[in-house]
Every structure is written in C-alpha cells, then in structure tokens.
C-alpha cells in the first residue's frame, strides 16, 4: 500500500495530530499569514512491497538537481526473499507526488536476500548501492548496483570469496571519475575472514583491483573493513578491525592509492588491550578522523575517536563512556565546518536500555560536550541511528523513542545547537500506531531534512518510510 501525505500547509498543532494518525480529520490549509517553522513535517511517504511484508529505508544521499536518493530493503523479511531497492525523490512534493522513480534489484538466479547497506552518488549524479545478495542457499555475496540519474540500471557487479561462504559489503564511495570503491569482509574458509577493498570501473562495473588484508601472522584472521572515504586525488582511507593472535581485535586505519597499493597502515590497541574497531571515517583539511569503539576486558566499552595526518601520523586519540550505561554503540558520525566532530548512537546496559547519546570534540581533541536522551517521565528508551551536521555546527539526529511494555516505538528527530543544547525534538507515529523508526538522515537543500526508515503495520509487516522536515 502506497501512502503520501503533504503537510507543509498545516499548522504545528496539526502536524502533531497527523503524527498520531489523525490526518483524515485535519483541514489542509494553514491560517492566513502562518509559515512553516523549524521542526515542522512537510510531507511523508510510505510504500509496501507486493509481498506485504518487511520494507525499510537503510541509507540516503543527495542526488542531482536538488533531488534525494534512498536505498531500501524490499521483501519478505529482514534476511531472505528481499530485493535491493532505490528510490529518487523530487525536490518538491507537488503533484504528481514526491517520487521521481523507484527501482528494485532482484538476483536473477536465486531471488533471495538482496539487501542494501550503503549508498554513494558520483559526480554525474548517478547512484550506487552496495550490499549483499544471496546467490545460493548457503552463501551471501557482495553486490554493487549502479543506476543512472534517470533510473536506468547501468550495471551490477557481484563478488564471491574463494570459500563460497558469506561475504559482507559495508561501504561504497566514488572518485571524481565515477569509479566505485567498496569495502567489507570475505570468508576465506575455516572460520577465517579477510579485510577486502575493491575498485570498479565507472562505465561497466568491471573489477579493476582488489586489496586483501589478513592481519598479523598467527591470528585467526577475523579482519573486517567497515568504512572508506576517497580524497580529491583518488586515494582511499579505510578503517575497520583486525584480529590479533590472542583473539582480540585492533582498530585499523590505512591509506591506499587509487591503484590499490597501501601507503601506510596503523593499528590501535586500546588501553585494556581488548577489542577495538573503527566504524566510520571522514576527511578534513588533510586530516583523517576515525571513530569506533574500544572495549575493556570487563565487557564495557567506550566511543573512540582519533585524528591522523595524511602521512599516517596520529595527532590525538580520545575515548568517552557514559556514566549511565556500560556500552556505547556508534551509529552516526559527522564533522562541522570547523573540524569539530560529533558522534551519535546508543548507550546500552543502563536503565532504560538503550538510551540515545551525542558527544562532540573539537578539532584539537578537546571534549566539547555530551548529551544522553530518553523519556525520563515514562522511562522509555531511545536511540540515535543517524546524524547530520551543517557547516555552522548545527546538529540533527534521528532514530527512535518508546518501546516499553506500555507503548510502541516512534520515529525520533532532534535538533541541537552547536553548544550541545537541545532546541527541539519531534516524533513520528505511523498510521497504524505500530513501531516506527528512522535509519537515515540527510541535509536537503538549504532548509530541509530528509529522514528515512520503517513504519510498522497492523498485519505484523513494515513499510518503507520517508519524510521531509523543515530544518
């Protein structure tokens, strides 16, 4: 079932009612002289796959001419029977509606388990989705799909490790020429996994090279590349984790040339010598920021943030742990125009479990502030799953709130000042008042926000959800 509701002309009170599922009772006109305000919902769109099962947006990125791309899961359930989908939204939602085109990739041989994990847009406005495809009953392979800006599928490239076991793609990026880079993990047999980075030709998706990293000798080779970024010269910076001989893991950050040769590799072994790993990476004025987690031997963990120079020299490393829980899980990372870093995620192991958090450092590594959020009055849990920061340092975080014995989960959108003070929070409750959450958040144009995620249905399924808000 497809649903589109345009709300830019509604008052703030009407928007609140709509989020509670009472749209049919509302007038579609704003009182004379009223204007949309920061935090107002402009429109939302939901769609249900033909199987009527589980659908949801996983990632989004700005498209050409003010449009927006979103990659989504489309299918039977979260693990099997799904298609990898892509949707392009118009800058404005006026008739005929917000969707310019919508496509899905289904593996032609097995028709199972096609699922996106990441998205990238090249300089020409074409969009690339990376993820997994189930090619046999036993194996999951990498898949990279490129669509042109008009929705035409340009090419599909899959990658299967020699062990013909499960291989996982975590991130994609493009260089100025439109060539596509991907990173993740491949199963090499006997319970061993290697770190893998690949490069695909822009025109046809041909594999140009692959870079494999196996970790130190004597380790179990549980290595995984989680995120990458490409600089203006076409060189790559990649972060992830690599197992040591004692079965714990180090955070890894490396620089690769555009030809797939390693310039340098750095390993981070935290203070307790337990498991450390990098989950995201960003560039700023010749420096490389890496964010991840650092675990202690007792099972608690901290957010870890490090800054490196382009030659691999480390400027500083910082960690943070909330006093309200024993495990902080990173789900969003961004830099502002001054190089200040903001990290978003969830704090687990407290009460409630989880709680949403934001933490920020200056470009010099000084802790600026931190904030933890949940509904204190009711004890309802919260999570931030995505983050956006503008050049002025204003911050938006998206995720969910609710989900106790007495309530369902609602989509959550929050705005923070550069100082860390919360300016406002908004929630989204789907029409069936079932669980809803946001997984993607992107600044859209100069005045709007795009959020993408999932909204539950009464029949036990879930529909993909997209919404546009005033910044």
Kindly describe this structure.
With 471 residues, the chain is mainly β. Helices cover 2% and strands 56% of the residues. It contains one helix and 33 strands. A hairpin with a 5-residue loop joins β7 (112-121) and β8. The chain is globular.
Please describe the topology of this protein.
Elements (H helix, E strand, L loop, with lengths): L2 E4 L5 H8 L21 E7 L6 E9 L5 E8 L6 E8 L9 E7 L6 E10 L5 E8 L5 E8 L5 E7 L8 E7 L5 E10 L2 E9 L6 E7 L10 E7 L5 E8 L5 E8 L5 E7 L7 E9 L2 E9 L5 E9 L4 E7 L6 E9 L5 E8 L6 E7 L5 E7 L7 E9 L5 E8 L6 E8 L5 E7 L7 E9 L3 E9 L5 E9 L1
Antiparallel strand pairs: 1-2, 2-33, 3-4, 4-5, 5-6, 7-8, 8-9, 9-10, 11-12, 12-13, 13-14, 15-16, 16-17, 17-18, 19-20, 20-21, 21-22, 23-24, 24-25, 25-26, 27-28, 28-29, 29-30, 31-32, 32-33
What characterizes the major β-sheet?
5 strands, antiparallel
| Strand arrangement, major sheet | 1-2-33-32-31
Total strands: the figure is 33
Assign the structural class, choosing from mainly alpha, mainly beta, alpha/beta, alpha+beta, or little secondary structure: mainly beta
Q: Give the radius of gyration.
A: 22 Å
- Low-pLDDT runs of 5+ residues are 8-33
Number of helices: 1
Mean pLDDT: 88
The N- to C-terminal Cα distance equals 29 Å
Shape: globular
User: Which percent band covers the strand fraction?
Assistant: over 45%
Helix content: under 10%
């Amino acid at each position: 079932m497809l649903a589109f509701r345009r709300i830019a002309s509604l008052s703030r009170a009407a928007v609140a009612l709509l989020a509670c599922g009472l749209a049919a009772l509302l007038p579609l006109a704003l009182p004379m002289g009223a204007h949309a305000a920061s935090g107002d919902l402009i429109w939302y769109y939901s769609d249900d796959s033909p199987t009527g099962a589980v659908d949801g947006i996983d990632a989004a990125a700005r498209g050409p001419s003010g449009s927006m791309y979103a990659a989504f899961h489309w299918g039977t359930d979260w693990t099997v029977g799904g298609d990898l989908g892509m949707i392009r939204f118009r800058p404005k939602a006026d008739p005929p509606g917000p969707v310019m085109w919508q496509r899905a990739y289904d593996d032609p041989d097995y028709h199972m388990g096609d699922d996106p994990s990441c998205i990238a847009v090249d300089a020409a406005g074409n969009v690339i989705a990376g993820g997994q495809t189930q090619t046999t009953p036993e194996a999951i392979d990498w898949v990279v799909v490129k669509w042109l800006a008009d929705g035409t599928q340009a090419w599909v490239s899959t990658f299967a490790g020699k062990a013909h076991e499960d291989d996982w793609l975590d991130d994609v990026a493009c260089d100025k020429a439109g060539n596509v880079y991907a990173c993740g993990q491949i199963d090499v047999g006997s319970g061993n996994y290697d770190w893998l980075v690949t490069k695909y030709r822009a025109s046809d998706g041909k594999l140009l090279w692959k870079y494999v990293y196996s970790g130190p000798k004597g380790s179990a080779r549980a290595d995984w590349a989680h995120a990458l970024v490409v600089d203006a010269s076409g060189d790559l910076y990649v972060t992830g984790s690599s197992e040591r001989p004692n079965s714990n893991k180090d955070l890894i950050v490396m620089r690769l040339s555009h030809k797939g040769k390693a310039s340098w590799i750095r390993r981070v072994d935290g203070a307790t010598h337990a498991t450390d790993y990098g989950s995201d990476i960003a560039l700023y004025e010749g420096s490389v920021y890496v964010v991840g987690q650092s675990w202690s031997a007792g099972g608690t963990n901290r957010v870890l943030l490090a800054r490196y120079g382009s030659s691999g020299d480390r400027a500083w490393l910082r960690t943070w742990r909330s006093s309200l829980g024993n495990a902080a899980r990173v789900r969003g990372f961004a830099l502002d125009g001054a190089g200040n870093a903001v990290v978003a995620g969830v704090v687990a192991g407290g009460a409630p479990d989880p709680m949403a958090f934001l933490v920020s450092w200056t470009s010099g590594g000084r802790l600026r502030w931190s904030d933890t959020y949940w509904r204190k009055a009711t004890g309802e849990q919260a999570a931030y799953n995505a983050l956006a920061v503008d050049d002025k340092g204003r911050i938006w975080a998206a995720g969910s709130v609710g989900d106790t014995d007495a309530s369902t989960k609602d989509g959550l959108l929050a705005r923070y000042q550069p100082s860390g003070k919360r300016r406002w929070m908004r929630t989204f409750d789907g029409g069936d008042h079932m669980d809803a959450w946001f997984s993607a958040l992107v600044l859209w144009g100069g005045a709007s926000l795009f959020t993408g995620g999932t909204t539950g249905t009464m029949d036990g399924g879930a529909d993909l959800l997209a919404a546009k808000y005033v910044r």
